[in-house]
Specification:
The structure is a single chain. The longest helix is centred in the C-terminal third of the chain and has 18 residues. The strands form two sheets. The chain has a six-stranded mixed beta sheet, sandwiched between helices. Strands 7-8-9 form a three-stranded mixed beta sheet. About 35% of the residues lie in helices and about 25% in strands. The two termini are about 40 Å apart. The chain folds into two domains: about 160 residues, 3-Layer(aba) Sandwich (Rossmann fold); about 100 residues, GMP Synthetase, Chain A, domain 3. It has about 290 residues and is an alpha/beta fold.
Length: about 290
């Protein structure tokens, strides 16, 4: 029996559940999930191996119109996802009627590769709303196969995954069979800390933050981590730290618990806050944090 392998890229507007779907497919929590837009900043690969197949899933940032250099870099990750895909998953939320960027929608509509349109969060609506969505998207994307799912409730996910495997091209595996992702350990440390900041801080604060893990030392029974939380202004530094350090401590405690689950080891985590002015608009700083696509 021939082996199948290919790249399956997940695209859609912010907050449609791309990361939840990715984690459901992989069976591990690789992508952070919050209710806030722009939670995903990078392109993250999740690798699923089975008998005779390897599915390489790609979770990309939600499609937006860029307002500054960081968002421009985020959209480059989405563009690159179109270039190497063997199969495209276009995820929409029940009730949603358009993609925020017309150019990206045209690319999906004119795609030469298979497109699966997944109507997500069907647990949030009724049958009439779903019927309306099925009719709308059948007209808008006649080239797509349409599935109704709830990634959060794991409804319809297995059916979609089976179809993905059927559509994969014949190919040897691209990655070792025991590899789960293309990202290093420090990336997931940064993402887990950033998730806690997205959950606990309001307004512009979460979007002005980047994490830099300076130290990751793994011993047999413990991992020692030192991470710096970068902000753009002194006032933001004070808000992150909070009164007598209480806010920063909460972030550290919650992140440490998740890191222990993720790595399966005891974690010693130290967090610091530094000001790195206007890093979101600096090409050199964005390169440092892994956003450079060139």
């Amino acid at each position: 029996m021939a082996h199948k392998a290919g790249f399956v890229n997940i695209v859609g507007n912010p907050n449609v559940g791309k990361s939840t779907l990715m984690n459901a497919f992989v069976g591990e929590r690789l992508s952070i999930i919050t209710s806030k837009a722009q939670t995903t900043r990078h392109r993250i690969l999740g690798i699923v191996n089975g008998e005779g197949f390897q599915v390489i899933l790609s979770d990309t940032p939600g499609i937006i119109k860029p307002a500054y250099e960081l968002q421009q870099s985020m959209m480059e990750f989405v563009r690159s996802a179109f270039e190497d895909a063997d199969l495209l998953l276009y995820l929409v939320e029940l009730g949603e009627k358009e993609l925020k960027d017309e150019d990206f929608f045209r690319k999906i509509k004119n795609s030469s590769i298979p497109v699966l349109l997944l109507i997500n969060k069907i647990d949030k609506g009724d049958e009439s709303l779903l019927a309306e969505a099925l009719e709308l998207w059948s007209e808008k994307l006649p080239n797509a196969e349409i599935f109704a799912i709830s990634a959060l409730e794991n409804f319809g996910v297995e059916e979609v995954f089976k179809r993905i495997v059927e559509l994969l091209p014949e190919s040897p595996p691209f990655y070792p069979k025991d590899q789960l992702t293309d990202k290093p350990e420090r990336f997931f440390v940064n993402e887990i800390i950033r998730e806690k900041i997205l959950l606990h801080y309001k307004k512009e604060i979460p979007y002005s933050v980047e994490i830099d893990t300076e130290e990751f030392i793994e011993d047999e029974d413990i991992i020692r981590i030192r991470s710096v939380i970068m902000v753009e202004r002194d006032t933001q530094k004070g808000i992150i730290i909070g009164h007598k350090g209480a806010a920063l401590k909460r972030v550290g405690v919650e992140a440490r618990k998740d890191l222990e689950t993720f790595f399966g080891k005891k974690i010693h985590l130290e967090t610091y806050v530094k000001v790195n002015k206007n890093w979101r608009s600096s090409k050199s700083q964005l390169r440092r944090f892994g956003y450079d696509q060139k």
